[in-house]
Specification:
Structural class: alpha/beta
Largest sheet: 7 strands, mixed
Number of strands: 15
CATH topology of the domain at 73-266 and 278-296: Rossmann fold
Shape: globular
Oligomer: single chain
Helix content: 25-40%
CATH architecture of the domain at 73-266 and 278-296: 3-Layer(aba) Sandwich
Order of helices and strands: HEEEEEHEEEHHEHEHHHEHEEEE
CATH class of the domain at 73-266 and 278-296: Alpha Beta
C-alpha cells in the first residue's frame, strides 16, 4: 500500500513538473526612463557616457540594458494654467507672464506646445500642438478666467474637494496624452493642491481609504512612466509663501512602499513632479525663466533602459547618479511591479 501511494505521488509530481516545463517563460519587457542631468550653471549637461552613470534598484547595483543621450529630441509640451488652486490675482499675473514668454523671439517655440486652462468647472484646451507661440498666446489671452469656487468638505474650506478635482484633472490629461507618440513634458503652473498634513484632518475628506489613495499613487506614477511623460511643477507664488511652506513637500519624496504609508501629500503636485523625474520650480516669480528652463530640460536628456525586477517587493526605489561633481540628476524615483 505504501509503495502504491509513493508511486501515485511521484506520478503527480512528474505531471506537475512537465506542465510547468511546457508553460512559456515570462519575458519581462525592458523599462525605459528619461533622466535629466543639469550642469551647475544651469542647462543640460551633455556628453556623458554610460560609464559615468551608476544605478541601484532597492540599493542593489544593476547594469542597464542601454544608456543613450537624446539631443534636440522632438518633445510635446503641455502648459497647464491651474485656476483650481491659484487665487485670482496670481492666476491673472501668471497668464500675463506666460503670454509674454510665448511671444518672445517672434513666437518661435522650439517644441510643439499646447495650453490647457483648468477651472473649478471645466478644462479648456483644443489639444492642438503648435510651435507658433503668437497663436498660442492669443488663444490663452482670450480665455475667460474665473475665480475658483470652494466646496464644503475639509471643514468648509474646500481642501478635500480641490484635491479630488485636481487629481481628476491630472488623470484626464494623462489619459489624453497616452496616445501621443514620443516624449511629453507636462508643465503645471500652480502652487499645488493642499497637502492636508494635519493629523486632525480626516483622510476620508479626500479619499475613502488609504488603499484607494495608494492606488492613486501607483496608477499616476506608473501611467506617467509608461506613457513617457515627465511632470513639472511651477509655483510662481513660492517667494511669497516662503521657503518653509514651499518646500514642505520634500518630506514626502521617499516613495510609498505600501498602502498604510500613503497620505494625501503622497499625491501632491510637487511630489509627483519630483518622483516622475521632473523639476519643482518654486523659488522665483520669473515665469519666463522657469518656462525656458523646462523647455531646455526637454531638449537634451538621457534615455536609460532597465530590466525591472519582478518579486514580492511591490515598490522598487531607483537611485541614478553620475560620477561628475556639480551635476544634478533628475530621474524617476522608482517603479511599482504590481500596479
Amino acid at each position: 500500500m505504501k509503495s502504491t501511494r509513493w508511486i501515485l505521488t511521484g506520478l503527480v509530481l512528474l505531471t506537475a513538473t512537465a506542465a510547468l516545463a511546457q508553460q512559456p517563460a515570462v519575458v519581462q519587457k525592458p523599462m525605459w526612463v528619461n533622466v535629466m542631468v543639469n550642469a551647475k550653471g544651469g542647462g543640460p549637461a551633455t556628453g556623458l557616457q554610460p560609464v559615468n552613470f551608476s544605478i541601484q534598484d532597492n540599493h542593489v547595483p544593476v547594469t542597464p540594458i542601454s544608456i543613450r543621450e537624446v539631443v534636440n529630441a522632438p518633445v510635446s509640451v503641455v502648459l497647464v494654467l491651474d485656476g483650481v488652486n491659484m487665487d485670482f490675482e496670481t492666476l491673472q499675473q501668471t497668464r500675463t507672464r506666460m503670454v509674454k514668454y510665448l511671444r518672445t523671439d517672434e513666437g518661435k517655440l522650439k517644441q510643439p506646445t499646447t495650453v490647457i486652462y483648468l477651472s473649478s468647472t471645466d478644462a479648456l484646451g483644443d489639444g492642438k500642438f503648435s510651435t507658433n507661440g503668437m497663436e498660442l498666446a492669443d488663444k490663452l489671452e482670450k480665455v475667460q478666467l474665473t475665480m475658483r469656487t470652494e466646496g464644503r468638505s475639509a471643514g468648509g474650506n474646500g481642501d478635500g474637494d480641490r484635491v479630488k478635482l485636481s487629481l481628476l484633472r491630472l488623470h484626464n490629461i494623462l489619459d489624453q496624452l497616452r496616445d501621443i507618440h514620443g516624449y511629453k513634458a507636462l508643465v503645471w503652473f500652480s502652487p499645488g493642491w493642499p497637502l492636508m498634513e494635519s493629523p486632525a484632518i480626516n483622510l476620508a475628506l479626500a479619499y475613502t481609504t488609504q488603499k484607494e489613495l495608494f492606488k492613486n499613487v501607483v496608477d499616476l506614477l506608473t501611467e506617467m512612466r509608461l506613457a513617457n511623460i515627465t511632470l513639472y511643477s511651477v509655483n510662481v507664488a513660492g517667494v511669497v509663501q516662503g521657503p518653509l511652506d514651499s518646500l514642505r513637500y520634500e518630506n514626502y519624496l521617499g516613495g510609498v512602499p505600501q498602502a498604510d504609508k500613503a497620505v494625501i501629500a503622497s499625491v501632491s503636485l510637487q511630489v509627483l513632479a519630483a518622483q516622475s523625474g521632473g523639476e519643482v520650480l518654486n523659488t522665483g516669480n520669473d515665469v519666463g525663466a522657469m518656462m525656458a528652463q523646462c523647455y531646455a530640460d526637454t531638449r537634451d536628456f538621457y534615455r536609460i533602459g532597465l530590466k525591472p525586477v519582478v518579486d514580492a517587493v511591490n515598490f522598487h526605489k531607483l537611485q541614478i547618479q553620475v560620477d561628475q561633481k556639480g551635476l544634478t540628476v533628475h530621474a524617476p524615483i522608482g517603479y511599482y511591479t504590481q500596479p
